[in-house]
Write a structure and sequence with these properties.
The protein has about 1050 residues and is α/β, with parallel strands linked by helices. It is about 50% helix and about 15% strand. The protein is built from 43 helices and 30 strands. It has an eight-stranded mixed β-sheet with strand order 16-15-17-14-18-23-11-24. A six-stranded parallel β-sheet has the order 3-2-6-7-1-8, with helices on both faces. Strand 29 (about 1030-1035) and strand 30 (about 1040) form a beta hairpin. Helix 7 (about 125-145) crosses helix 18 (about 305-330). The longest helix is centred in the N-terminal third of the chain and has 29 residues, at about 195-225. Mean pLDDT is about 85; it is low at about 870-880, about 885-900, about 900-910 and about 1050-1055.
Length: about 1050
Amino acid sequence: MIPIKPSDAIWTDEQWNAIYDKGHNIIVSAGAGSGKTAVLSERVIENLKSGMSIKEVLLLTFTKAASLEMKTRIRNKIKKNPSLSKELSLIDEAYITTFDSFALSIVKKYHYILNISPNVSIIDGSLIRIKKKEILTNIFDKYYENRNEKFLKLISDFCIKDDKEIFDSILSIYSKIDLKYNKNEYLDNYINEYFNIDRINNDIKDYEKLLMSKFEELDYLIEDMSYYIDSDYITNLRLSISNLMHSKTYDEIVSNLSVEIPRLPKGSTDEVKEKKELINDVIKNIKSLCTYKNREEIMSSILSTKEYKEVIIDILKDFDKYVMAYKYENDIYEFTDIANLAIKLVKENISVKEELKSSFKEIMIDEYQDTNDLQEILINMISDNNVYMVGDIKQSIYRFRNANPDIFKEKYNKYSNHIGGEKIDLNKNFRSREEVLNNINLLFNKVMDESIGGADYIKSHQMIFGNKSYIKKGKTLQNYDFELYSYMYDKKSEYSKEEIEAFIIAKDILSKVKGNYQIFDKDTSVLRNAEYSDFVILMDRTTNFDLYKKIFLYLGIPLELYKDETMNEDTDIIVLNNLIKFTIKLDTGIYDKELEYLFTSVMRSFLCESTDEKIFDTIKNKTILTSPLANKVRKIKLNNKSSYEIINDLINEFDFYNKLITIGNESASSVKLNSILSNAKTTSSIGYDINSFSEYLDNVIKEKIDIKYTIHSGVSNSVKIMTIHKSKGLEFPICYFSGLYKPFNISDIKEKFTYSNKYGIITPYFDEGVGETIYKHLLKNDYLKEEISEKIRLFYVALTRAKEKMILVMPYEEIVNGKESDLVSNVVRSKYKSLLDIVSSTLVSLTKYVTVIDYNKSGITKDYSLLIKKDFKSGIEKSTEVLNVNELLVENETLIDKHYSKENNKLITSDVKKNMKFGKYVHEVLEYFDLKKKDYSYIKDEFIKNKIISFSNLPIFDNVNEANIFHEYEFIYTLNNTKYHGVIDLMLEYPSHIDIIDYKLSDVTDINYISQLNGYKEYISSITKKPVNVYLYSIINEKISSFDICQHILTIFIKKN
């Protein structure tokens, strides 16, 4: 029974119901700025007042920050209620936590039932990913060795150069199937389930529906065209496609594909021609989807994939077995594993299930729209008609984290009809001005509905203005409607769209700050002048954040960046890893080429900043082991130390943090180092020694595995720039939206091998060539619809961050006009490819908000790229001391990376592969061969031994005893803003000259080799005054060619071609 709301209550009627309604499941649809967090915490307090203990409440959030904030809110509210003082001491023990933490607590509590250690820990995804790749590599090797027929057919039919695509696809497919609670059962039953003829027939019907949806598209386009051309043409047009439009089955569609669109009347406008072209495009699209002769061929193409899927399933089962065994042995798990273990525990143990059920009188879930399938299964198992769910389907933007918005949507629709529970809508917004809400409603009434977007915006989700203080105390003459700053963009312009938009926004911010733009401070309920911290720039990706930073620095505007970074090829990480390797190598006492390489790397780095001359002398005199660097490293004792302790000691000994200042962005580098240390601590707990951890860093760098870390750079009173995802849950007085023209990322559907929850494992088929089954087309259609729906919701999240003003910046050339309508057609919305498309489709209703901007008046210039870093720290006392400063302007430009090595763009056959393997082996033998001693005894292969003998007895080596010999000499240097990187096979330094010899297996006339040798010669000549001779040696032909001869061959080749 809901108590009667007092007349002086601060809550709206809907909020009151959301606080006091009890006795059944409740879903609260809480729009942006509706006060859901306040309602949620108040409901907890009212539960406590009614006799419930805080320990009898399970309150689940999706982030640790959110759970901490909720716990703080509840603690503060308890402090204001003396009658609840006993609950204060219990709040730290209460289950106000994340889903993951709750599942982990269950697993640890009942570990003995699961037969696992109580000391289970969560492993970082980058760490386990490397192990997973190792396990899958071993499985592939086993299948190759055993000559598994189905596996070899899979590789033979779909691999050209190597098996990488299938290898990566299996990792991806596993990551999706791993989200299923019953994955083993699912895989066991897969073939029977998905190759059931009735199921396939239903899938073919889905495909026919997809084709017929194209008829709706044609109908829409013809209707649109009818407004621009006479009715006789439209009649003839409809007649020409009538048979196709009335087709009901695939076979009928194929038989009616011969369509001839009537010619346009003479003098037709360009607009009409464009509309006819759009109709032609749809017909071409239909034809492209009808590549199968008939329905029977669709069926046979699907059935032909059975063997491919059987072997993929076998690999997945083996992979899962080995991965889970590794995790079990090391007491390390991913969060998905923990959720599965928790479900298994509850499902298979009635006593545990009943204990958990009876422990919680109410289960409360915040951000319910972000729930995934495993979380929903667990909650359903331990609930008893006592689940209180709060969320907003319109803010479901984490599909990439496996959130399933359909869970919220289906439950909301059921509860709306009083089936299984009750729904409450909180649509009154207390964040934003009325103009802001009206603008948002105007836009989303037209682009969001149940089918695309996931919510019937007009019917149930329009926001209602609730914060009357804007009217009473915050009223001004300023314009609070949103503005669309549109600029004419010429592709020939010297400025990019990104530069233009950054300057337009920067100029507007400066204008508002200098012009004392008024901001209503809700905390003090007074109007005040705008500050930099009142502005935010929101984008859907971080690509151009650094560009904005440079431009804002140039213009004197403090800018704070909020973004996640990844590290794999960062210089500071490579240097740290090489320092670790040098430490390990030094401990062995072995002096070899690797030691020289590591020594060179560390000495050249920002840690030592040594000259090449000093490095060269140390290597030449063989004094690395007694060098100052070696002595410094020896202070770090390796015995009985974990990898974490060793790395921490190295960082301190070499003053890593302070020296990071010399390479810029020291705060980001510090975060990276802390992340590395954190991973070192984790790996130490699972038995990684310092050697193993160094191998892990090697893999991170080699495999380009992303280790994510978050950085904020700026000062408190600064403009903020962040992604829309980062902004969720935040609010800002004035919001700018930039980069709207950037296309959505739809790379997932380009993979040949992939997975769909609906259609299962999707593979191509092979019939005198590679072809796609209907499942790829069905997946693409579903994926695009889901992607577009989520992007519409993402745009809703973006716009609802604004409290007082929204400003959208966009290129004018991208704007598309249309007809005024209540809801944009499904046909148009299904074609959205960017956030700008969403705006453009509603532009007829937004034209009064458009302002055309001449960006040339924004002060745009390329001079920002010459700027040195400025300091915006405030509050430092001014000194009267006069300092003489010589200011240096340092150009800050992007370097181009080039590698001196031949790129192979040809298909790699098995014979080529063998030759490459042979060539690599010979290279290794030559790397360790001593040209002075000429000892051949360790070379067992007679063929290779003879090749080495021929090579070592070349006349060029007659005086080799006088030379300093360098094998695999690696160099990196920068010239004209281009960074060059190469490895010289063999370099001989004589008193009078230097010889460079590069080995090749056979062909020494390749154009790429000539460029490679030229690069070697250029670099060595730049660091020595001695003459440099360059040679190419063919191992197979036993012939050596000088660089001059090679160039002559190249000249002849160019003339002939």
